[in-house]
Design brief:
Layout lengths: L2 H12 L6 H11 L4 H21 L1 H18 L2 H4 L5 E5 L3 H12 L3 E6 L5 H12 L3 E6 L11 H6 L3 E4 L9 E5 L3 E4 L6 H5 L3 E6 L2 H18 L2
Parallel strand pairs: 2-3, 3-4
Antiparallel strand pairs: 1-7, 2-5, 5-6, 6-7
């Protein structure tokens, strides 16, 4: 199905601010057979179409928000709906690191990592394993921190992982990752041994499309900015 056709389906369903059973069935059917790019297009277009009414406020905004919620739920493949509930993990202790490793090992297509530093070999190893099994791994990190003793950034680069570094006097201080364009990991947790063993840190994990989409756009923005 062409993107223009997908947009037309969305616009038609928005005309009465409702998602009837036939329209819901169309979206559910689409979710089973369209590509990831088309699925992202539908999500982003639904938010784009909703934005003017939501900004205007009033009864129309409430109706549009209800429509938007139903569209997003309808286009989510069932296997993604059941994948995870929002999670929170804390350190010290291995909970944060273990969850990161589990997400890396479960990735099927892509891992986008945007972190201040990586120096924990227990995380670096699974990243390299993912790269070797054909997962598209991209890492954005801080240029100054990559020179620290124990940093694994240049080791990952030498092994063929796509690594991009900022080139400024300031720090690239984000700590988030996106797995298969549908699971977001974010929080204060640095990907280091000290973060696991002694620091007070945290991570949040969510498959909420609006959050995943927003962080994905930020990742793409940084990737363009830091590309040679």
């Amino acid at each position: 199905m062409e993107l223009s056709e997908l947009e037309a389906v969305l616009k038609n369903s928005l005309q009465d601010f409702k998602l009837d059973q036939d329209e819901k069935a169309v979206f559910q059917s689409l979710a089973k057979r369209i590509t990831d790019d088309q699925l992202r297009f539908i999500r982003n277009k639904a938010f784009e179409l909703s934005r003017p009414s939501i900004r205007a406020g009033g009864d129309e905004a409430i109706k549009v928000l209800t429509w938007l919620e139903r569209v997003v739920k309808s286009i989510q493949p069932r296997k993604q709906q059941a994948l995870i509930q929002p999670e929170a993990h804390f350190s010290p202790g291995s909970s944060c690191r273990d969850r990161i490793i589990k997400l890396i090992n479960a990735a099927k297509k892509s891992i986008d990592i945007c972190v201040f530093t990586i120096s924990d070999n227990k995380i670096t190893g699974p990243i390299l394993d993912a790269h070797h099994r054909g997962i598209q791994v991209t890492i954005i990190s801080d240029n100054d921190k990559s020179n620290d003793r124990g940093s694994d950034i240049y080791h990952l680069l030498d092994k063929g992982v796509n690594v991009l570094l900022d080139q400024s006097q300031y720090h690239m201080h984000h700590k988030f990752a996106i797995f298969d364009n549908r699971i977001l990991l974010n929080g204060s947790f640095n990907w280091t041994r000290s973060a696991t063993e002694v620091n007070e840190e945290n991570i949040l994990i969510s498959a909420e499309p609006a959050l995943v989409s927003k962080f994905a756009r930020q990742f793409e923005k940084l990737k363009v900015s830091f590309s040679p």
